[in-house]
Amino acid sequence: MSEAADGNPKVKALVYVASFLLEEGESTGELAGKFPGNELGPALRPVPVGGPDGQTVHDLYIEQEKFREVFAADVPEEVAALLAVTQRPIVADALEGRATKAAWKTIPSWNLVTVRDLAVPAQSQRFMAERARSHTVEVDASHAVTVSQPGAVARWIDEAARATAS
Question: Are the C-beta atoms of residues 25 and 99 closer than 8 Å to each other?
């Protein structure tokens, strides 16, 4: 998001939800492990697939039996089970890729911190929010806050939109 928004005059606010506010040169993998509490790494299962250049890359899936505990602890069991079997993988290289831009330096940001997040620990989220001087709210939720507390997420997005409406 930060890469796409940087320098775009139509973007008035950035809203991060249980997410990364990367500085230039940082990777999500680096920041996810900067503070204790990340349990996602050991729960990831790499699956080799063909990449666009013909080389093998690895898609990372959260092991289904660990999905709810690590990613969606506050989501009903049957919903978490559905999320586990329909999850979209992330390419391993994406966790290593380094940011080249940080739009939060010039665009106001709102950050929703999930305090029971085992994928992006709350302490890491707070660190990034403070560094970015982001408007911050904390929610007692897992990483799957958009599923467990969609109203809180929608209100936070609405607040950012209203604060930056011109």
Answer: yes
Written as six digits, the tokens of 69 are 């505990």
Q: CATH says 2-164 is which class?
A: alpha beta
Instruction: Name 107's Cβ contacts closer than 8 Å, sequence gap at least 6.
Output: 5, 11, 12, 13, 14
Counting Cβ atoms within 10 Å, is residue 87 exposed (0-12), middle (13-18) or buried (19+)?
A: middle
Provide the token pair at 166: 């011109």
Extract the runs of DSSP E, i.e. beta strands, from the chain.
Answer: 14-17, 44-50, 56-62, 90-91, 109-114, 135-139
Contact 77, 67 (CB under 8 A): no
Q: Could you state, in order of their start, the residue ranges of all structural domains in the chain?
A: 2-164
pLDDT in tens, 101-155: 999 999 999 999 999 999 999 999 999 999 999 999 999 999 999 999 999 999 9
